[in-house]
Amino acid sequence: MYDLIIIGAGPAGMTAAVYAARKRLKAMLLTLDIGGQVLWTQDVENYMGYQYITGAELMAKFEAQMRQYPLEIRYEKVERLEKADGLFRVTSDAGKVYTAQTVILASGKKPRLLEVPGEQEFVGLGVSYCATCDGPLFAEKRVAVIGGGNSAFSAVLE
C-alpha cells in the first residue's frame, strides 16, 4: 500500500516525486523512462534560470535532484487504473497490482508521428512537434502545419 503512485517520469512526474518525498509520503514512480518528451528537445531556451540548456541536460538535472530522495521507481507500463473501495489499483504490464490512496497521472504526451520519409532524420532540424516551443525559430519562414481544428490554427499563430 502506497500513499501515492505517480505515473510518468517527465518533468511533472519527477517534480511530484520530489514533493512527495519531501513530505515523507510512501510513494512510487511508475514509468517506462525518465525524462519524457523533453528528452527529444535539442534546445531549451524558455526554462527560467537557464538561458540555454538541452532537453537531455535539463532532465538529467531533474533526475539527479529526484534521486536524492528515497523513492521507489519501477520501469513498468501501466495497463489499468481503477478505483475500488476508496483506493486506487494500478495494474502493470508485469502483471503486478499496486494499491494507493492517491494517484498522480503525469504520463505526458507523445506526438502522433506522420511516418513519412525523412521525418525522424529531421526532428530538431526543421521538423517540430511543439509550436509553443519552436514557433519563434520559424518566424518569417514558410512552414507547413499538419493537423486540424483549433490546435492546428493555434500552431499557425505561434
- The helix/strand class is alpha/beta
What do the pLDDT scores average to? 91
Overall shape: it is globular
User: What portion of the residues fall into strands of 2 or more residues?
Assistant: 15-25%
Strand order of the largest sheet: 3-2-1-6-5-4
Oligomerization state of this entry?
single chain
Approximately how much helix is present in the residues? 10-25%
Model regions low in confidence, pLDDT < 50 over at least 5 residues? none
For the termini, the CA-CA separation is: 45 Å
Radius of gyration: 18 Å
Count the strands? 6
Number of helices: 4
Major pleated sheet: 6 strands, mixed
Report the order of strands and helices.
EHEHEEEEHH
Give an overview in words.
With 158 residues, the protein is of the alpha/beta class. 23% of the residues lie in helices and 23% in strands. It is built from four helices and six strands. It has helices at 11-22, 55-66, 131-134, 149-157; strands at residues 2-7, 27-31, 72-75, 78-84, 87-92, 97-105. It has a six-stranded mixed beta sheet, covered by helices on one side. Helix 1 packs parallel to helix 2 (55-66). The longest helix has 12 residues, at 11-22. The radius of gyration is 18 Å and the shape is globular. The mean pLDDT is 91.
